[in-house]
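Final report, closing paragraph on structural work. Over the funding period we assembled a curated collection of sequence-structure pairs, and we close with a single example.
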Amino acid sequence: MATTMATTTTTPSPVRLLIINPNTTISMTDSLKPLVQSLNYPDLHPTFFTAPPCPHAPASINTHHDAVTSTTHCLPYLLPLLDAHDAFLVACYSAHPLVSELKKATAGTRAGTGTGKVVLGVLEASVSVALGLLCGREGGGDAGGDDGNDGGTGDGGEGEGDGGGDGEGDMHGKDGKRKRKRAGRKTKFGIVSTGAVWEPLLSAAVAAFLGVGTDACLSSHSDSNSDSDSNSDSDDRNGRGGGSRFAGVVTTGLDATDLHDLRREVVEEKMRVATRRLLRRGDVGVVCLGCVGMGGGLEGVVRGVVEEFEGEEGVKEEEEEGSMRGGVGEGQGERGEREVRRREVYVVDGVKAGVGMCVALVKGGF
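Its predicted structure, as stored:
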């Protein structure tokens, strides 16, 4: 007589994730919702928090002082929400003090583990994903950069030219050396952000996260006039041993509200120019979007990558399959994804990266 075994199935517990916009601009929060939904995590239950309006609360976080002010403002509203969520993602691309404050507030509160709940910032998440994507690529190599200065008027420098144009410079002739460098190992990540104030702030934040001195990350992306590969000894002397994966920060001159208020083509053009400037530093394989509002300018990033590597030898031609979670977002379509991927360059959105990491950490019991 045959016997049947009864099987039981258990429904996975949902991951209750609170995504925190620490400024008061509701439209910024609303722009994150389709981005998160596009990830299609079946057991993710996201909720969204926007800083309540207040005369002293920033509508856009453009300085470290804004970040501190927003922490003081938001924390009393967030503390009553801690028990109702498993993880928290601070959606501001900075070393935002709200991350550490929430870690302290949730310490020891995770049932059965004695540990705290998962708290991440989008900067830390995007850097973690960037390093993961670069893992296994050949290390070492050039210090980053080419003969042109970022934003300068030389061949290959992109930015304001002498005649007021964008000054993209000659892409042929002696620029061939730079092209070969850009088509090389692609062992570094860099950040495209908003205002110039974020260049030193984000460089310092990356240095702190990687556990290296700030000078290491700053010197690792300084412009170099040498076309020769540097050896390990010179890397150590210049502080590039710890920051050799970081190509630095390039800014667009916009602020976070501009990303929503300006015409899309203006934002895309600023993003295109900044992306090309970053790629010209050499060996860049990951472009991190250094503001949570930059999703609307992704087409500009795609164009920047395609233009910068167009016609180069040694660029991978086959279109790789696989998940793009944490990479190029929706909006530029499959062709844009393929064009970036075939050039072995990833575009990392910090919100996508952060949501994915929060889900994985909660599910893994960390």
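The chain is about 40% helix and 10% strand. The longest strand covers residues 15-21. We thank the funder for supporting this effort.
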